[in-house]
Amino acid sequence: MNFYYNRTKIVATMGPASAKKDVLIAMIQAGLNVCRLNFSHGKPEDHKKVVDIIREINAEYKTNVSILADLQGPKIRIGLVKDGGINLINGTRINITTNECIGDDNQIYITYPTFPQDVQANEIILLDDGKLQLKVIDTNRKDTVVCEVVHGGILTSRKGVNLPNTKVSIPSLTEDDLYNLQFALEWDLDWIGLSFVRTGQDIIDLKRIIRESGKSARVIAKVEKPEAIENIDDIIAATDGVMIARGDLGVEMPLEEVPLLQKMIARKCRDAAKPVIVATQMLESMITTPRPTRAEVNDVANSVLDGADAVMLSGETSVGEFPVIVIETMAKIVRNVEDLGYPFNAKKSENLDPAHPNFLSDNLCGSAVYLAEHTNAAGIVSMTTSGYTAFEISSYRPKAGTYIFTSNKQLLNALSLVWGVRAFYYDQLESTDQTITDVNEILKQEGHIRTGDVVINTAAVPISKQGKTNMLRVSVVE
């Protein structure tokens, strides 16, 4: 069975529309690389069924589809309101209380215990993805905040709350997150997405929990708050990857700033060799129609041009009517941009920090990409245990194929998120010469390279110890 492999990877959110095995197989054939489990919805037992199906497919078809567990984070919501909805009228006042109640024209409940202590007068409160806007008039610092309706409308139950001006004191990992994290780690999932990250310390705290659990899941920092933008360098340094979650980010910050923020974050992630996902409303019209809008096609294409490692689908594949067609459509858009050979704003070797402990290895990876381009090489072939070399080579966005061999089975799936990388299992580490001969032959047998092709091989010498990459060789396939 043939599977399409794109360089810019595709992440799809799982849900009722994509939970059946035959549908998932078709999606993977069309170009799906990473399955996202959204722990904001569904029960652990429902997610476990999908995990089992994905792993069945990986075993049966020798694919390396990765799994991303996306934790909900401290999502703030209002409570229930009477009659299914209340009308907030411009210029009127309404109380927001931390005392649970059924909302009416006078007061509404908020699921944020320290809300009255954290907000200040004149700060903005956004409800229902920014459709409604309130302004803080006063707070009793105990349980009630008086607000004025700036932009009103119908407010229904359990809508989300965004606080673009407020320093939120809720921890990034809630009790629900810790509960769901336990399952994600127990199931040995590849990536953990942390929502509403504000500082690098949020990532460090999550990594400590993962490490203390004896697991090796990597962390994706979801950037969706102004505080995250302020601390973006520390967050990128601490995390293993970044998701530009444009939904909440576009609510909490001026919409017109989001496109340039996307480009800035993507560039910083490439320079740090950290994969970056662009998410939210990419092909949203395809939830109910089999064709995207022209604006959506441009959005996906521009994300590829920005150098994103992956583009992500949400409702389009979780509850949409056309999950397979959505993947096919996104893959076509990605392929068309990649086939034109645009430069993907790759990292440059001259930007490397000589004081960095991996300066020599990073330069060697950059040199491998340089050599590949100037020898018209068919592939860059590397050995890695940690995955560091794969991330580093990918950040240069090489035109040659990037083929990574590893004895670390969990790494095989994790690398499915990384731009341009194809991963293979290999554990016969006898000698450098023999290993290079073996991996080149494997690629030749599988049709990735041919006799006479130039290949750039990198490895750690001695290869049996698998330390930092320190060897580069130009090979001609025999």
What is the CATH topology of the largest domain? Answer: TIM Barrel
Oligomeric organization of the protein chains = single chain
* DSSP strand content: 15-25%
Distance separating the two termini: 28 Å
Main structural class = alpha/beta
- Order of strands across the widest beta sheet? 1-2-3-13-14-15-16-17
Total number of β-strand segments?
Answer: 22
Q: So what's the overall shape?
A: elongated
Helix content: 25-40%
CATH class of the largest domain: Alpha Beta
Figure out the total of helices: 16
Number of domains: 3
CATH homolog superfamily of the largest domain: Phosphoenolpyruvate-binding domains
Enzyme class: transferase
Keywords: ATP-binding, Glycolysis, Kinase, Magnesium, Metal-binding, Nucleotide-binding, Pyruvate, Transferase
Catalytic activity: pyruvate + ATP = phosphoenolpyruvate + ADP + H(+)
GO molecular function, one term: pyruvate kinase activity
